[in-house]
Amino acid sequence: MLNFYKVFKNNNAYLLLLFYCSIAGLLIKFEQDYSLQNLLSRGIELRAGVSQRLSDIYRYLQLNDENEKLALQNSVLLAEIIEQGSVLRDSASINRTARFIDSSPISFIHARIVERRFNTNENLLIINAGIKQGVEVDMAVMTPEGLVGRVIQVSNNYAKVMPVIHAEFSVSVVSDSNSTQGILSWNGKQEQLAQMDYVPLSSSIGVNEIIHTADFSTFAIRGIPVGQVLNVEPDQKFYRVDVRLGADFSSLNRVLVVKKTTDPEKKSLMENTADEDQIPEEVQN
Questions:
Q1: Taking the CA of residue 131 as centre, how many other CA atoms within 13 Å lie in the half-sphere pointing to its CB?
Q2: Residue 197: predicted pLDDT
């Protein structure tokens, strides 16, 4: 016992160190077990989070691919719809034109508008019918709804048309109910609205009257529909008459060229008379 006490006394520092080391080891062991579990738990959470993120990214990329496929399919469908719509519109226009031709004794040349300029007061149309198809200068161009314009220049397979909505266009017209006559022209403002000039205050023209081309025209045959009277207001010497045009220039696609022009002898005589008497007439080109 005395020897043990001496050994303990002489080595107490080492024994205390060993004791403390043992306690520290136990504490470290317990701490390591908790940290390991905590680390494993956090690792599992991290792995699950990363997997979820990767899965979301993969699905997002797949959605992009699907969106691209859907966009491509939509573009194809849109092209088909546009093409079918154009065919339907052309078919409707052709059918309407065919019905009009069948009911008319006048001969026509079918044509389609291939170029247009509707951004100035000097609007122009190009149609795919020319000399080879029988088109001549000063032939009237129309649709079943109304007058479109006049041919001012021709090539072998195309023709240039001055539309009603041109600053230099004019045509002799007459109302259907009371035969009021005047000169129709366009003031460059509203596309669907023209003006009927030189209508005397003594006339009885009224709103909603139908306007046709008159015998006095130097290019259009008599009876081509032009439009409908929208407004009548008295001025100093004449009425100011607004006419809603029958032809819809915003959707114009197919037209008819009237295969008949004014008698050259009549046209020449009218032009000479107009030069001598200075009577208002249609602008010539």
A1: 4
A2: 92
- Beta strand 193-200 with 124-127 is unpaired
Q: Where are the chain's structural domains?
A: 1-103, 108-162, 165-250+260-277
The yes-or-no answer to whether 108-162 and 165-250+260-277 have a common fold is yes
pLDDT 10s digits, 105-144: 567 888 889 988 877 778 899 999 999 989 999 899 988 8
Question: What's the CATH superfamily of 108-162?
Answer: Rod shape-determining protein MreC, domain 1 (2.40.10.340)
Secondary-structure class of domain 165-250+260-277 per CATH = mainly beta
Cα distances (Å, whole numbers) of residue 265 to 117, 220, 268:
33, 15, 5
DSSP letter for each residue of 233-271: EE-SSEEEEEEEESS-TTS--EEEEES----HHHHHHHH
Per-residue pLDDT reduced to its tens digit, 166-188: 989 999 999 888 888 999 999 88
Any residues with CB less than 8 A from the CB of 100 and at least 6 apart, and which? 144, 256
The pTM of this model reads 0.58
Token pair belonging to 258: 């009237």
